[in-house]
User: Fold these one by one.
Assistant:
Number 1:
Amino acid sequence: MESMIFEELQNAVIEGDSEKSVSLAKNALEAGIPPLDVITNGLAKGVKTVGDLFSEGQVFLVELILAGDAMKAGMSVLLPVIKESKAEMISAGKVMIGTVQGDIHSIGKDIVGTLLEADGFEVLNVGEDVQSETFMEKVKEHKPDVLGLSSLLTVTMPAQKDVIEKLKASGLRGDVKVIVGGAPTTQEWADEIGADGWAGDAVSAVSLVKQLIKG
Ligand code: B12
């Protein structure tokens, strides 16, 4: 049953069918499947398939865009349920999260943000294609405990480093822990640019933030 719904969800994303993605996500919830499993085993696998086909030149940009839209459509059903499921009254800490300059990929970052919220963190999602200077201003203004920088393109990874350098230059680096993530990033990259941590998925991102705030 579960595996059939996951496969159907993958196909809905591969076909770029947002309506189907929404109705299948609802069906999955009704069937009692945990929303994060629906994202991980259904939607995200579909979008990964399309990404692979795109890099092999087997599908075009339009299919990539439609797949992204279908993933987001399904997530619009699932993320609110995750958020509501655990909402706590006392904030466990403040996390600012955004995608770096030149990069408009939002999906992974939004999942990380929602999972953190579900775990009781106050999350400020500052969006995509965020300039390093804007991160500086927002860090000064909101004073988050942790700043999460997402990058999905190898060409935008250097912008993560740029934010860290700018935080250092403006004397703010000591006030905020910086974590990085996104498919092309690695722990080695995080170490190289002087980030405080790296996580490869949203569940590990939550553990990482907890660890950093405790420490
Ligand atoms: C969907 C998608 C798009 C959509 C994005 C829609 C949206 N609103 O986000 C659209 C169509 C807009 C798009 C555009 C482009 N894309 Co694109 N895209 C993808 C795709 C298929 C899926 C990305 C995704 O959402 N994955 C699902 C989520 C759940 O995974 P995730 O993002 O990795 O996030 C998880 C972890 O990484 C981690 N995480 C993420 N962020 C953070 C942050 C922190 C702080 C932490 C701790 C953890 C963390 O937790 C998340 C949850 O588990 C990938 C393929 C892939 N395999 O990644 C290509 C991919 C990233 N895109 C690619 C490319 C080339 C492009 C374009 C340049 C295409 C073009 N020619 O125009 C443009 C760039 C636009 C821009 N300037 O940003 C390449 C990048 C190649 C490279 N190495 O640089 C990829 C890898 C496809 C490929 N195989 O060629 N894309």
Number 2:
Amino acid sequence: MFRKRFGAGMDRMPDFAFKMMSLMFKFRDRFFPQDRVLDEFGIQDGQVVVDYGCGPGSYIGRASKLVGAKGKVFAVDIHELAIDAINKKIAKENLNNVSGVVAKNGKCPLDNDTANLVFALDMFHMVSDSTLFLKGLNRIIKPDGVLFIDNGHQPRKQAKTKILASVAWDIVEENDRYMKCKPTK
Ligand SMILES: C[S@@+](CC[C@H](N)C(=O)[O-])C[C@H]1O[C@@H](n2cnc3c(N)ncnc32)[C@H](O)[C@@H]1O
């Protein structure tokens, strides 16, 4: 019941759960900001970066700064409320290099080979068809691009099994917070 209400394995969260989560993240980001992890990803000026499963946008300010004026950040989420929040943040913080993108029915409208780097944080546990999801990320990444993905709320072993079963990504590095993957294409 709790898992269903709060989104595990069901992709799109109920609106109420999304609003509750956004409130919790406001508190989290104020007292325990998460976005400095992006500094470890090697994001370069001018790159195209995708924040996949962006939620209310805890990472977009830092991502915007790291890619700079010539770069681009796509903040993708399956939930329209997330993209509403992203659009508000873009306007409020003048994040001119960020665009919110709705992945309707789990389908991301970005073109093939768009991104230098994709990060998908605290969301992998919500994805119901992990192979379809990971193949979708493989489609939008450039051949020399990288994916940073964390476990979400599932054991590392389970997350790794899903990644390897997709045959879309090789795990090239990992630490206790995330895995770095390269596309198999
Ligand atoms: C727990 S929130 C985390 C948000 C953000 N990544 C963070 O760490 O602050 C997970 C987000 O992933 C989104 N999500 C879940 N499944 C998705 C999918 N298949 N495609 C895109 N977004 C998805 C949810 O709508 C939700 O906004």
